[in-house]
UniProtKB/TrEMBL annotation:
It comes from Ramlibacter henchirensis. This is Aminotransferase class V-fold PLP-dependent enzyme. The keyword Transmembrane does not apply. The modification N6-(pyridoxal phosphate)lysine is found at residue 211. Keywords: Aminotransferase, Pyridoxal phosphate, Transferase. GO terms for molecular function: alanine-glyoxylate transaminase activity; L-serine-pyruvate transaminase activity. InterPro entries: Aminotrans_V_dom (IPR000192), PyrdxlP-dep_Trfase (IPR015424), PyrdxlP-dep_Trfase_major (IPR015421), PyrdxlP-dep_Trfase_small (IPR015422), SP_NH2Trfase/AEP_transaminase (IPR024169). Gene3D superfamilies: Aspartate Aminotransferase, domain 1, Type I PLP-dependent aspartate aminotransferase-like (Major domain). Substrate binds at residue 356. Residues 50-335 form the Aminotransferase class V domain. Its cofactor is pyridoxal 5'-phosphate.
Length: 409
């Protein structure tokens, strides 16, 4: 019923799109300008320079008017040729979708998997762990002829709430003495979880607008290394719209070869300003702290956190596994209908087994407390027994770790 408007604001607690701050909504409402005119060039140069600081790169970042899936395709089609072998790693649903895309593009992906079992999630044990870099190293060492052209991993697996150690993957590739490109999806990690494109030696980083950057969906990114650009000159997968060369060329003066997403670029400029005013490292610390509070709540409820390895807990979202026999989608439905809050669904192999709480973007202490309150009431209403109050546990954590900001200065 599109005419039904419950009072107050909707709690969009999915792990992206994340709530769009009012400042960005206002910026997006400015008039659309001539994308070949002088004002636009200034905007283009501003966002292209600013987004490099967010990726921590000195090299070009290509901005597409597309969702993250488009930027995935751009990363593959610019660097690879039909029939190329690529090494991918099944961390969850998004890694699985990228693998499917590689197949559809005519590549030969090999999908590495976590080898262990898990009593709480027998259907997808690997979906509770990050990339095991040693498996990548071992596989690359066996590829003496260097048939594998790229290693593709997801940095923040949005379907599970598990991150992967990208620096360790780089070290694994180097230890094997292998020339494969390193392609990384941090669609849901950028501007929320520590990420360093240049320092970690990533060749293509794929990201999107609707997560840590707090924009609506609609633009996405490829941060590219000189080695990736060199590969794009000889790679032969068909590419036209996605081709980096003309875009990078025209970006020198702040323009694009086609009509860019002007109003989303206004929002991007505003977003970069907000993130840098808070401080990128402070943004990461805020996400870590909110994630710790969320996990304190899940543990107090007596439920399992989907990520089984504390070293790689996601600062962006928390996956909550429900006891066998409980329908997680029923819990989400009760929360939605009773408290006007959207939670992330279990995707693919974990559909109905878990739900996801997003704590990214502009999320703060009180927003998280409200979200956890909604989850707790929803769990009880759906008949899930909780051990003790997770909301209170989060309050304790947040209260005891709060810092005061001197707002006058
Ligand atoms: N990769 C990851 C890790 C994601 O979280 C998403 C979307 O949630 C995608 C890829 C796909 O991006 P999009 O839905 O913007 O096309």
């Amino acid at each position: 019923n599109l005419n039904f408007h419950p009072a107050g604001r909707h709690f969009l607690q999915i792990p992206g799109p994340s709530p769009v701050p009012d400042r960005l909504l206002r910026a997006m409402s400015y008039p659309t300008i001539d994308h070949r005119g002088p004002e636009f060039g200034a905007l283009g140069r501003l966002v292209l320079a600013g987004i490099k600081r967010i990726f921590k790169t000195q090299h070009p970042v290509v901005i597409y008017p597309a969702s993250g899936t488009g930027a995935w395709e751009a990363a593959l089609s610019n660097t690879l040729s039909p029939g190329d072998q690529v090494l991918m790693y099944e961390t969850g649903h998004f890694a699985t979708l990228w693998n499917k895309m590689a197949l559809r593009l005519g590549l030969k992906p090999e999908f590495l998997r976590y080898p262990g079992a898990d009593p709480h999630l027998p259907e997808a044990p690997g979906w509770r762990h990050g990339v095991q870099a040693s498996l990548i190293e071992e596989r690359l060492r066996r590829d003496a002829r260097h048939a594998i052209k790229a290693v593709c991993v997801v940095h923040n697996e949005t379907s599970t709430g598990v991150t992967s150690d990208i620096a360790a993957v780089r070290r694994a590739i180097d230890a094997a003495g292998h020339p494969a490109l390193l392609l990384v999806d941090t669609i849901s990690g950028l501007a929320s979880a520590d990420y360093r494109h240049d320092e970690w030696g990533v060749d293509v980083t794929v990201s999107g607008s609707q997560k840590g950057l707090m924009l609506p969906p609609g633009i996405s990114f490829n941060a590219v290394s000189p080695k990736a650009i060199a590969a794009s000159r000889t790679a032969t997968l068909p590419k036209s719209f996605w081709a980096w060369d003309e875009i990078i060329d025209m970006n020198q003066t702040g323009y694009w070869p086609y009509t860019p997403n002007t109003n989303l670029l206004y929002a991007l400029a505003e977003s970069i300003e907000m993130i840098e005013a808070e401080g990128l490292e402070q943004v990461f610390a805020r996400h870590q702290r909110l994630a710790a509070a969320c996990r304190a709540a899940v543990q107090a409820w007596g439920l399992e956190i989907q990520c089984a390895d504390p070293a790689v807990y996601s600062p962006v979202l928390t996956g909550v596994l429900l006891p066998q026999g409980v329908d997680a989608d029923k819990v989400r439905q009760v929360v939605y209908q009773s408290f006007n809050m959207s939670l992330g669904a279990g995707l693919g192999k974990v559909k109905g087994r878990m739900f996801r709480i997003g704590h990214l973007g502009e999320c703060n202490d009180l927003a998280l407390v409200a979200a956890l309150g909604g989850c707790e009431m929803g769990l009880k209403l759906a008949g899930v027994r909780v051990r003790e109050s997770g909301t209170l546990a989060a309050l304790e954590y947040l209260g005891s770790t709060a810092t005061r900001q001197d707002r006058a200065s």
